[in-house]
Specification:
single chain; about 70 residues; mainly alpha; 3 helices; about 95% helix; transmembrane; transmembrane helix; Small leucine-rich protein 1; membrane
C-alpha cells in the first residue's frame, strides 16, 4: 500500500490537492458551523418566549381550573 500512496502523491499536483480537496472541505465545514450557529441563536431566542407562554397558561386560567374541578 505504501508504494501506491507515494506514487499517487508524486503524480498529484499540490494545487489540485489544495484547491480541489482541502479548500472545499474546509469551506463546507465553515458553512455548516455558521448554519448551526444561526439555528442555535434562533432557538435560544425562542426558548424564553415559549417558557413565558407556557407559564402564563399554567397559572393564568382560573376559570379552566374551576371547570376542571367540578
Amino acid at each position: 500500500m505504501n508504494p501506491v500512496l507515494s506514487a499517487f502523491l508524486r503524480e498529484l499536483p499540490g494545487w489540485f490537492l489544495f484547491f480541489g480537496v482541502f479548500l472545499p472541505v474546509v469551506l463546507l465545514l465553515l458553512l455548516l458551523i455558521a448554519y448551526f450557529r444561526i439555528k442555535l441563536i434562533e432557538v435560544n431566542e425562542e426558548l424564553p418566549q415559549i417558557a413565558h407562554h407556557q407559564y402564563k397558561h399554567k397559572g393564568g386560567s382560573s376559570l379552566h381550573q374551576k371547570m376542571k374541578r367540578t
